[in-house]
TrEMBL record:
Keyword annotations of the record: Cell membrane, Membrane, Transmembrane, Transmembrane helix, Transport
Subcellular locations according to the entry: Cell membrane
UniProt-recorded name of the protein: Cobalamin (Vitamin B12) biosynthesis CbiM protein
Gene Ontology CC terms, in alphabetical order: plasma membrane
Coiled-coil ranges from the UniProt annotation: none
Transmembrane segments: 36-56, 68-91, 97-118, 130-153, 165-185
Membrane topology note: Multi-pass membrane protein
Gene Ontology biological process terms in this record: transition metal ion transport
Length: 204
């Protein structure tokens, strides 16, 4: 889901950088010190999952886990994703520093929105909570694909086909992410319920 350097127009890069800076600032402000270990673990999980690429036709896709991060971290998912993307750009040249802001918004915006809206449902019990967890995971990927497609299209109509292909290629991944998120959230609610309680108490 990374957009490479040299593809997006300058106005899109500027808007992405400003939006990422604003979201990160709020995310840092809303992150309690005692939550930093959990944020670090999720940033590491995102970093590693994104390195495992699955061949799909002429391209490849990979797990993203942004929806899971939104569900577990709330606002703290933004700085966590920024750190993970920054390390990938520096160490492996995935994306790049000039597009770091746009890529952060692509990953964080849908994850944050879905995580905040569906968190009360996820904290419940039963089939509805499982369905909400699945929707967060699936929606995080689909939302990221749509934001990435919008960034490409805003940089030039010639990217329309690439934008459509990007979204279509990640639909299978979205379903997989939904299942993974539902399983992980269900497991954490049983063995580490304080993770959700801490996030709620911090107002995220």
């Amino acid at each position: 889901m990374h957009i490479a350097e040299g593809v997006l127009s300058a106005p899109v890069l500027l808007v992405g950088a400003v939006a990422a800076a604003g979201l990160t600032g709020v995310g840092v402000k809303k992150t309690d010190q005692d939550r930093i270990p959990v944020v670090a673990v999720m940033a590491a999980a995102f970093f590693i999952a994104s390195l495992v690429h699955i061949p799909l036709g002429p391209a490849s896709v990979h797990l993203i886990l942004n929806g899971l991060m939104g569900a577990l971290l709330g606002w703290a998912c933004v700085p966590a994703l920024l750190v993970g993307l920054g390390l990938q750009a520096v160490l492996f040249q995935f994306g790049g520093l000039t597009v770091l802001g746009v890529n952060t918004v692509i990953m964080a915006a849908p994850a944050l929105g879905l995580g905040l809206v569906l968190r009360p449902v996820i904290q419940g019990r039963g089939v509805v909570a499982v369905a909400a967890s699945f929707c967060v995971g699936m929606g995080g990927v689909i939302g990221a694909g749509c934001v990435a497609a919008l960034a490409l299209y805003a940089s030039g109509e010639e990217f329309l086909s690439a934008a459509q292909l990007l979204v279509a290629a990640h639909l299978p991944v979205a379903l997989l992410e939904g299942g993974v998120t539902a399983i992980v959230v269900g497991s954490l609610k049983r063995i580490r319920p304080e993770i959700f309680a801490a996030t709620s108490e911090s107002g995220v």
